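Section handout, structural biology tutorial.
Before the tutorial, make sure you can parse a SMILES string by hand: atoms, branches in parentheses, ring closures as digits. In the record below the ligand is pyridoxal-5'-phosphate, and the chain has 359 residues. In the tutorial you will relate the predicted structure tokens back to the input. Do not try to memorize them.
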Amino acid sequence: MSETSPKLRAELEGIPTYKPGKPAAADGPAAYKLSSNENPYPPLPGVMETVAEAVRSFNRYPDMACTGLVDELAERFGVPASHLATGTGSVGVAQQLVQSTAGAGDEVIYAWRSFEAYPIITQISGAASVRVPLTAGEVHDLDAMAAAVTERTRLIFVCNPNNPTGTVVRRAELERFLDRVPGDVLVVLDEAYREFIRDPEVPDGVEIYRDRPNVCVLRTFSKAYGLAGLRVGFAIAHEPVAAALRKTAVPFGVSQIAQEAAIASLRAEDELLGRVGSLVCERTRVVEGLRAQGWTVPETQANFVWLRLGERTAAFAEVCEKAGVVIRPFPGEGVRVTVGESEANDIFLKAAEGFRREL
Ligand SMILES: Cc1ncc(COP(=O)(O)O)c(C=O)c1O
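Predicted structure of the complex:
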């Protein structure tokens, strides 16, 4: 066998691998998974039926243009179909956005800590990451982000609400920021958790994108719509950007099963958003419960809460796991805990209370 191995792009060296949330143990005490911001509700029966029907033809390639889904989304959001681009989850679309705008010598700006895929997809494209620390209140520092723009900047992610802190940026500050960003820099409003927002001051990115050609909105069926395992997300963007997304898409990347399930979910939106409402009530209960125990919890508008535990992060995660809930530790920084079924939230609250008493 030859001693040499294929030459790989130097940019791939040192890329952090994406860490998926740990699954709940099959045989251990941890019975609930609160580590991936998933929807705890099982699929709706109507969506399951649609999927069962779509399964019958998976010997065929899917509709590459996702025509039915795109038409439905165009109507739902009041945007031209040509402004829509679908992909394998919104993370797939995010990767295409970076690929379409930034390469070696270019810069991509995002807050930190934020969604852990941003550094990965930026490095894969060969561009440099410019990380702007969150404020002391765990919120995007939009002034610092605007100040970080250089002539090399190609794309800026604004994750609203932010993963993993759940914090939001509001209308006035976002508009002020966008006014400062040059028109040739793409601003991606990542709204994966949009449906969980209850703060009326948080703008709907789709309204912002309408008269700003350099703004693009990312949405997903993974969270509120409960289709995480089917991998379908989309962007709403003006034509040059949407067209670039269609060029960079993996052909047939969204299965017919995912397309049909997404359409069925849009049609069952009332019921799905009712479930989101219940999760938002649970979120309030979890946040208030933690605060009553003495924890500092940033205001969250997503389906998770953030506790900045610093050096105690790993110990806290271990206590939770022993109690029966798997959460997401970011070693040395803090933990992100998804709001799940009420039994899981009860277990988490009890574990947090026990941990606090030991401090
Ligand atoms: C902020 C944010 N954006 C995008 C995604 C990607 O979701 P998906 O690829 O399932 O649409 C996630 C998933 O956790 C997220 O937290």
